[in-house]
Design a protein that fits this description.
One of its GO terms (cellular component) is cytosol. The structure is a single chain. By secondary structure, the chain is of the alpha/beta class. About 40% of the residues lie in helices and about 15% in strands. It has a single domain, classed as Alpha-Beta Barrel (TIM Barrel). It contains 11 helices and 14 strands. β13 and β14 form a beta hairpin. The relative contact order is 0.15.
Length: about 375
């Protein structure tokens, strides 16, 4: 990719409302991700208007597959590097392996640069910070800030499941470095099943100076769809207990009896809520999944159902980038379905997973009770 000029405009001024996540190109979610037509999928996503892509070295081999796609002549000839926002992560290596040392953070960033064949990365997150100490995470952010000063990274963020840990690190970063985090990414806590991000996190992130909040996994790693959770080559890692899975399955059947699809409804709900949240962060984004052209189309169609273009943006791009305002008519039509879903899941509404799981030691970064029966029962 060509060498651009690195700018430091606020991330919220350049980010798109919808982000395509790369976890679907991993062994966690697919038995053979190398067999996927990733070049064709990325090319199709670009044609639909996706310009922001999120992945992680932990999502093996997603970085390599996406790097191959973005460096392919068919894509390079059509899209400038400056049009694409590449987001990746550092710190998490495997289900039970983390390395937040400065040396590893530097190695991981440089490896990602090589994999994407680019001179810079747009956003780099410290991955799943609840598995390490706050000091580990803050120090790693400092290393990433050094990369920003060198022009190899544009924006820095942290990601994870546990909201209070994300808030804590965001405040500590601002206090220590005198500059806030550009972004926070939280997964599966602004969904049709769990709205804790909106209730417990957004105000605190705003107060910590965070510019962009990314709501990832709006389908809760494939739980909120028909057919059950995805099973990759590593087995069933999903943290949802059997009771929650059963209630979601019942709710999915109820929706289908009314001509509705759970995945589409859940996506519409998540997209609407992050954009209507109060206080709404300057950058409010939804990270969607998809490991096939069919899935990408389904996700884009769900977004079109709940979003519309403003008068100013109508026809500007001719694709999903124009859609940014929540449609009140669709929101009203979905309300009864959302309430019906929640009646069925009952007490499982706002149920949260334990992350990290009991027995994890954030100081040693190991399980206290190894070996474990299922080392993969850990989230993406």
């Amino acid at each position: 990719m060509s060498q651009p000029i690195i700018s430091r405009r606020p991330l919220s001024s350049i980010i798109s409302k919808l982000v395509l996540g790369g976890a679907g190109f991993s062994t966690q979610l697919h038995p053979d991700p190398a067999s996927l037509p990733v070049r064709d999928i990325v090319n199709h996503a670009l044609k639909l208007g996706f310009r922001t892509f999120d992945t992680s070295p932990y999502y093996t081999p997603s970085e390599e597959l996406l790097g191959d796609a973005f460096s392919h002549p068919d894509i390079v000839s059509r899209y400038k590097r400056s049009e694409i926002i590449l987001m990746t992560k550092v710190g998490r290596i495997a289900a039970l392996e983390f390395n937040y040392s400065p040396a590893w953070i530097r190695y991981s960033v440089n490896r990602s640069l090589d994999r994407f064949k680019t001179s810079y990365l747009d956003v780099v997150f410290c991955h799943d910070i609840e598995f390490v100490t706050d000091d580990d995470a803050v120090a790693a952010v400092g290393v990433l800030f050094d990369f920003v000063d060198q022009g190899k990274i544009r924006y820095v963020g942290v990601s994870g499941y546990t909201i209070d840990r994300l808030v804590s690190v965001a405040n500590l970063v601002k206090e220590k470095y005198g500059r806030p985090l550009d972004a926070v990414q939280n997964w599966a806590q602004l969904t049709i099943q769990n709205t804790r991000l909106e209730e417990e996190g957004l105000t605190k992130f705003r107060d910590a100076g965070v510019d962009c909040v990314f709501n990832s996994s709006p389908l809760c790693i494939g739980l909120l769809r028909s057919g059950g959770v995805p099973i990759g080559s590593l087995g069933d890692f999903h943290p949802a207990p059997p009771g929650l899975r059963e209630k979601v399955s019942q709710a999915s059947e109820w929706l289908e009896s009314r001509g509705e699809n759970l995945a589409s409804l859940a996506l519409r709900f998540a997209i609407a809520r992050i954009n209507l949240a109060s206080p709404r962060p300057p950058g409010a984004c939804t990270v969607l999944g998809g490991a096939s052209i069919w899935e990408i189309d389904a996700n884009a169609n769900a977004a079109r159902m709940i979003l519309e273009a403003s008068k100013e943006n109508a026809g500007q791009h001719g694709d999903i980038r124009d859609f940014e305002l929540v449609r009140s008519d669709r929101l009203e039509a979905d309300e009864e379905l959302v309430l019906g879903f929640r009646r069925i899941i009952g007490d499982w509404f706002n149920f949260g997973f334990t992350s990290p799981e009991a027995g994890w030691n954030i100081l040693t970064k190991k399980m206290n009770d190894q070996p474990r029966d299922n080392q993969y029962r850990s989230k993406l």
